[in-house]
Design brief:
mainly alpha
C-alpha cells in the first residue's frame, strides 16, 4: 500500500499517461509505415526461430530468455532515466513502433486472430509493466533535471523508491507475462491456426 501511495505522491501517474500516449502514437506509426521493414525482419528471423524451436528444453529456456530480457531492460530503463528521462522515452517509443509494425506485418500474413492470440494474453500484463518502468524512469529523469538546474533534487531517494516498485510489481508481473508467453501463447496460436 505504501508503494502505491509513493507512486501517487511522486507524480508517476502523469508520466504513466505520457508513456502510454507515446506508446500508442508509435504503435499507429509502426502500423502505418513500418510493415515492410517488419516483414523483412520476420523473414530473416524465421530460420533462427526454427533452429531455436528444435531445442528439447525450449519452454524453460524460452521462459528464462523472455523473463531476463524484459527484467533487465525495464531495470535499465529505470536507472537510465537519470539521463534526463531521454532513454525511457526512446525505449517506449521504439517498443510501440515495433509492436505496430510487427503486428501489422503478422496481420497481413496470418490474420488478426493470429495477432490477437500471439500478443494479447501476455501483452495485457507485460505492456503495463513496461509503461510503469518507463514512467519510473521519467520520474528519475525529472529529479536529474532538477539537479542539473540546481534545484532541490532527490535522485538517490527516487531511484530507491523506483527499485522497490520494480521488485514488488514490475518483476513479478514480467514473470507472469513470461509464463503466459511461454506456455499459453503457443496453445492459443495452435487453436487459431487449426480453427
Amino acid at each position: 500500500m505504501r508503494v502505491i501511495q509513493a507512486i501517487r505522491q511522486k507524480g508517476v501517474i502523469r508520466y504513466l499517461v505520457l508513456a502510454t500516449s507515446i506508446f500508442f502514437i508509435t504503435i499507429v506509426l509502426g502500423t502505418l509505415i513500418g510493415q515492410n521493414a517488419a516483414l523483412e525482419v520476420l523473414r530473416r528471423l524465421g530460420g533462427l526461430v526454427e533452429r531455436f524451436a528444435r531445442t528439447d528444453n525450449l519452454p524453460i529456456l524460452l521462459f528464462l530468455m523472455i523473463f531476463l530480457n524484459n527484467g533487465i531492460k525495464t531495470l535499465a530503463i529505470i536507472f537510465l532515466g537519470i539521463l534526463l528521462g531521454i532513454p525511457p522515452l526512446l525505449f517506449i517509443g521504439l517498443n510501440g513502433f515495433i509492436v505496430g509494425s510487427v503486428g501489422s506485418a503478422l496481420e497481413s500474413a496470418m490474420g488478426w486472430k493470429y495477432v490477437m492470440a500471439s500478443v494479447v494474453p501476455h501483452g495485457m500484463i507485460e505492456v503495463p509493466m513496461l509503461l510503469l518502468a518507463t514512467a519510473l524512469g521519467l520520474t528519475v529523469g525529472m529529479e536529474s533535471f532538477k539537479w542539473l538546474i540546481r534545484r532541490e533534487s532527490r535522485v538517490k531517494l527516487q531511484l530507491s523508491d523506483c527499485l522497490k516498485v520494480y521488485l514488488r510489481w514490475i518483476l513479478p508481473g514480467l514473470a507472469v507475462a513470461a509464463v503466459i508467453e511461454t506456455f499459453v501463447t503457443n496453445l492459443l496460436i495452435g487453436l487459431v491456426v487449426v480453427g
